[in-house]
Amino acid sequence: MPPDSAEQRVVLVTGPSGAGRSTAISALEDLGYEAIDNLPLSLVPRLLDGPALGHPVALGIDVRNRDFSATRLIELIDRLTRAPELRLEVLYLDASPDALVRRYSETRRRHPLAPSDAPLEGITQEIDVLAPIRVRADVLIETTDLSPHDLRAELEHWFAPNSGARLAVSLHSFSYKRGVPRGLDLMFDCRFLANPHWVAALRALDGRDPKVAEYVAADPRFLEFFSKVRDLILFLLPAHVEEGKSHLAIGFGCTGGQHRSVAVTEGMANAIAAAGWQVSKRHRELERRGKSQPVVKAGSGA
User: Fold this and answer.
1) Does residue 262 contact residue 291 with C-beta atoms inside 8 Å?
2) Where do the H-state alpha helices sit in 43-137?
3) pTM
4) Residue 89: beta bridge partners?
5) Which end is more exposed in the chain, N or C (fewer Cβ atoms within 10 Å of the end residue's Cβ)?
6) What are 4-36's pLDDT values in tens digits?
């Protein structure tokens, strides 16, 4: 079944200056999106008001926007997410500070937040300003090691308007204490599993560490839980493709978002990718602590 023609697809493209936002806007325009860059935030709702346009829209947002602030952008994301006639996706393009400095040196441009200082000053300031937006992203692409051609290929995988058969699956680990991530389609509670937090040697580690993963997997209930959830997800994915969905977000939560939910998310991402699906993973609490650099991970497609 094709996607509902009354639903307007909107992609907000943001990220630090130099991470590839302009390249992404151009690539999305080539894919058939109406691309508008640096539109004032206050004008976005007016642009999207009314019936669906008949084509997807890509909006470039960064610190140079006239009325930009992280708080206003988060409020805009929340407002557009609640609109039933819109299908909003936030694309965040990221790169390491070293890569951003190198790109500024190559182009000899001044950073918009520090036009009179070295680019690193503006880059550091911008990364701090955008940190709350990075956490809210639906798709995060690390461009440090990507050429413009590679970035365009990734964007085609995620955002080609007719890529309904290329259902993108994003897996999210999170802490229930900090609330459920925005936009989840499915959610599973991992708090019943053995908690590595109570093991002194494991407390400082996270669920990506093999020792933590082995400890969680040693819980007698783990294997049955993991197998049933994996089989349920693999059963549901083709059905969502038939319904015309292009993205499915699945969350795994635990108390602190550091051990059990991360270990399950890592294992589930590998299992779903091995089955041929396009998968990304996000560890919200680890990102908040600066411990994670999530990258897009693609299977062979469905």
Assistant:
1) no
2) 44-48, 70-82, 97-107, 119-136
3) 0.59
4) 11
5) N
6) 456 788 999 999 988 888 899 999 998 889 999
